[in-house]
Fold DUF1772 domain-containing protein.
Amino acid sequence: MATSARVTDALLVLGVTTSGLVAGLFCAFAYAVMPGLHRTDDRTLVTAMQKINVAIVNPVFLLLFFGGLVVAAAAAWLSRGQSIGPWAIAAAVLYLAGLIITIAANIPLNDRLAAASGIDADSARAAFETAWVRWNIVRAVLHTAGFVVLATGLVAGRA
């Protein structure tokens, strides 16, 4: 196997791994974290999400989140002209769409929530929860689809 093929394979496996981890995180928020917080009072949800939003900005998350797009794009570029190429391109586009949703929708909602005072937790929650959950589900679906597409392409390209 040529060196470039090994690099492409390594990037594809790394892309599947990072996209799966990011998809899993967003899905966990959709099916466990937010439904659990929905059952709490306003102040608890607001405080918990404020703390989560600070804690998640860490090197591991940032490496996975932004690195996943870089890896997917590099894999798409290196695999052009191969049977995996269209799969890798589709996965990179889906990953990019999820990243755009995060930057355009979820982060601004997080920033507004961070600025909310604890005194007005009910209106902070009302302005945050429904929209954030909706956009999180969209990005969870996009990242999960990207993961499935890339994993399917990896298997199909090797069959």
The two ends are 16 Å apart (CA to CA). Helices lie at 3-38, 42-55, 59-78, 85-115, 121-158. The chain has one domain: 3-158. Residues 3-158 form one domain.
